[in-house]
């Protein structure tokens, strides 16, 4: 937990960013329902009204935390043009699994207070997946169809669920999980390619 004062001369963006950083630690420690706007303001060394000046309420602040973390995840899984599609997918999966590790300290993978946090987390993950779908279609050179998007989106939901389920399982290696995810993706794409091939025959 940070107790450092914000420098006197800071921009509104810096103050807002600092509040979000502090809030993330509170949400991770206390969960969505347990986090307190008063405690967040005190730890950020700002007034409670200032927090509400930037964020209409706790839900808005939590969404800002999730948006920040989602951007970080997208950056960590960004494809490298110098690498092959398989290398990029493997690297992205490795970073994705690291992100959902209990050691990552991310609010995006909170699971303890589902009633409060789940709707916001689900929305953030869906937004993240929309971008990842675009990336995977481009990486694999697939036809950008509604079916392809549905298949890849469903696969991403599988990857997310598997990452969450195995996050604290030290008996299963990350490489084994990545291998399963890759196999499931390729298995799902085979019938998709067959369907797309049939469409070209008519």
Automatic annotation (TrEMBL):
Domain HTH tetR-type intervals: 13-73
UniProt keyword list: DNA-binding, Transcription, Transcription regulation
Organism per entry: Rhizobium leguminosarum bv. trifolii WSM597
Protein name: Transcriptional regulator
PROSITE patterns per record: HTH_TETR_1, HTH_TETR_2
Molecular function in Gene Ontology: DNA-binding transcription factor activity; transcription cis-regulatory region binding
DNA-binding region: 36-55
Xref: InterPro entries: DNA-bd_HTH_TetR-type_CS, Homeodomain-like_sf, HTH-type_TetR-like_transc_reg, HTH_TetR
């Amino acid at each position: 937990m940070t107790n450092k004062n914000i420098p006197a001369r800071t921009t509104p963006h810096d103050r807002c960013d600092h509040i979000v950083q502090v809030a993330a630690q509170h949400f991770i420690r206390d969960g969505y329902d347990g986090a307190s706007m008063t405690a967040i303001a005190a730890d950020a060394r700002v007034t409670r009204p200032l927090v509400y000046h930037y964020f209409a309420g706790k839900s808005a602040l939590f969404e800002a935390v999730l948006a920040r973390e989602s951007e970080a995840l997208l950056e960590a899984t960004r494809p490298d043009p110098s690498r092959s599609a398989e290398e990029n997918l493997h690297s992205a999966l490795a970073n994705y699994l690291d992100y959902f590790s209990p050691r990552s300290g991310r609010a995006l993978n909170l699971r303890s207070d589902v009633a409060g946090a789940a709707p916001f987390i689900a929305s953030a993950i869906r937004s993240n997946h929309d971008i990842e779908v675009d990336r995977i279609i481009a990486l694999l050179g697939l036809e950008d169809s509604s079916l392809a998007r549905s298949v890849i989106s469903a696969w991403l939901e599988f990857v997310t669920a598997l990452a969450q389920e195995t996050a604290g399982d030290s008996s299963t290696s990350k490489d084994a999980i990545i291998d399963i995810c890759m196999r499931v993706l390729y298995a799902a794409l085979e019938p998709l390619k067959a369907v797309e091939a049939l469409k070209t025959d008519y």
